[in-house]
Structures are given as structure tokens and as C-alpha cells.
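Is this the right way to post C-alpha cells for a design question? Let me know if I should format differently. Anyway, here goes:
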């Protein structure tokens, strides 16, 4: 064989091996079974500690019979209290180091790790078992790019002016009637005026990936950069919505328990894309 033919053959062989490797690369598909149906999820490689921990608990069957014990409509569903179910002493309730990435956000369907608050957990370490699935809601761009806490503080100062008595009465009416969407819309309508009158900046501009997600599929943007997002539901969002709509008690626990069973399967990544519609970021 001539040298140039040999080089060409070697190149084709290497190309074929590379293509074969890409087509046979496998990933873990998580199936969360509930009485409302199944949710299917993938776990992110960017959060290796959380991915490995979740898979270990699932493969050992330790999530089975745990409940979605905290459910808040238009916010999230939380479950997976393995340690509580197994009656482990609190000193054995291990935590995981935070793996927070700006590209992994709280869009609808995201899996994220529950944790204790910053006041006792400044490192933002995650629970070793409890997780939540984001439902949230869709936002308009103006709301998304506004610091709503600062807006409310500025608006309340503005209402103290005697000349704003009609505006104050409208605010009180919305509040007393529980019309909170109308109340927010009223405050947002005064944003520019408030910034000019009080000489304040009420912006809270979001990153492009946040804008795209939260104005389309929705989610819970205020949790970004504070909790570890480690996976995503890629099929079964209707099941998420059904669970989020469950009647709950004062502690946000469903009156009719929503028990889960979690299974893990190793599947070709290409098959996951074809059957579940999830596009891997590094896919070509």
C-alpha cells in the first residue's frame, strides 16, 4: 500500500472509531414513578458529586417509598427524604459540596438539591438526599429584569406622598382583594417614574440563558446561583403539574400522599435524544 493510501485508510479507520464512540456513548436515564404517571430525567455531568450520589441512592432503591412531602403550586415539588424514611440519626445526614453553575438554572423541570438556609449553611452545601423539581411560572421581560423587592420598597415610599392618595387607594384595594398580579403590574407601571423621582436603579438584569428560559418555559429565577441544579425532567412535565396541583395542608404536604419509586437505566445518548427530545450541549 502506498504511503498516501495508508494515511487515508488510517484516517478513515480513526474517523469510524470516533463516530462509533459517539453513537454508542451512554448516559443514565432516571425514571420517577408516581400515581400520576412517570417523569423521566437526565443528570448533568457538570455536577458530578450530585449525579453520583443521586444514582447511588436510586440504584440501591433508597428513594422508593419516599414522598413528595412539600408541594407548592407554581413553585416546586420537593421529596426524597431518604434519611427520614430510614430513621437515620441526624449525625448521619450527610451533605454534599455545592456545585452551582451559571448555565444550570431553575427553569421548569430542573432537578435541584434542597439545603438548609444561608444563616446556618453559608457554604450552601446540599442535602444528601432531598431534592426538588421546579415548576415555577412564565415571566415577562420587564418583571424578570426588575428587582421586585427594591421596587416594592420604592413604591411604598412613593405612596406616602399626599399627592399619591388615589394611587395608594388603588394599591390597598388590590391588596385587600388578593389581586397580587394586578398589584405587581401597578408597581411595574410606575418603575421608570420611581427611578427618576427617587434617583434609584431598580434593575436586576438577567443573563441571556435566563431570559430565554423564564420568558418561554418558565421557572423560579430567584433561586438561581443559590442552589445546586443537577438534572432536568425531559419528559413528564404534565405529571409535575398534576403533583403541584395536589391539595395540601398548612405545611404544604399533600393530603393524599404522592409516593415515588425511582429507577435508573443506562441508555445510548442518541436514543435519549431521539425518544425524549433532549439535546446534549456537546452533541454535534
Amino acid at each position: 500500500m502506498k504511503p498516501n493510501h495508508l494515511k487515508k485508510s488510517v484516517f478513515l479507520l480513526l474517523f469510524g472509531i470516533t463516530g462509533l464512540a459517539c453513537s454508542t456513548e451512554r448516559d443514565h436515564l432516571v425514571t420517577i414513578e408516581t400515581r400520576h404517571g412517570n417523569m423521566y430525567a437526565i443528570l448533568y455531568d457538570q455536577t458530578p458529586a450530585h449525579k453520583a450520589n443521586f444514582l447511588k441512592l436510586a440504584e440501591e432503591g433508597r428513594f422508593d417509598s419516599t414522598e413528595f412531602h412539600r408541594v407548592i403550586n407554581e413553585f416546586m415539588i420537593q421529596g426524597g427524604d431518604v434519611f427520614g424514611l430510614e430513621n437515620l440519626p441526624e449525625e448521619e445526614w450527610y451533605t454534599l459540596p455545592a456545585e452551582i453553575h451559571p448555565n444550570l438554572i431553575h427553569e421548569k423541570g430542573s432537578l435541584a438539591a434542597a439545603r438548609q438556609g444561608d444563616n446556618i449553611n453559608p457554604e450552601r452545601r446540599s442535602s444528601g438526599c432531598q431534592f426538588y423539581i421546579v415548576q415555577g411560572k412564565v415571566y415577562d421581560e420587564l418583571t424578570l429584569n426588575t428587582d421586585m423587592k427594591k421596587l416594592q420598597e420604592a413604591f411604598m415610599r412613593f405612596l406616602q406622598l399626599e399627592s399619591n392618595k388615589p394611587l395608594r387607594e388603588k394599591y390597598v384595594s388590590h391588596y385587600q382583594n388578593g389581586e397580587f398580579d394586578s398589584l405587581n403590574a401597578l408597581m411595574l407601571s410606575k418603575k421608570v417614574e420611581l427611578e427618576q423621582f427617587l434617583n434609584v436603579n431598580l434593575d436586576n438584569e438577567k443573563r441571556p440563558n435566563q431570559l430565554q428560559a423564564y420568558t418561554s418555559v418558565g421557572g423560579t429565577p430567584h433561586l438561581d446561583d443559590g442552589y445546586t441544579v443537577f438534572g432536568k425532567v425531559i419528559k413528564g412535565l404534565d405529571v409535575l403539574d398534576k403533583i403541584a396541583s395536589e391539595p395540601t395542608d398548612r405545611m404544604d404536604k399533600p393530603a393524599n400522599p404522592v409516593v415515588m419509586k425511582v429507577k435508573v437505566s443506562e441508555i445510548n445518548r442518541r436514543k435519549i435524544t431521539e425518544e425524549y427530545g433532549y439535546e446534549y450541549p456537546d452533541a454535534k
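Format looks fine. Someone answered above. Worth noting: DSSP finds eleven helices and ten strands in the chain. Confidence is low (pLDDT under 50) at residues 6-23.
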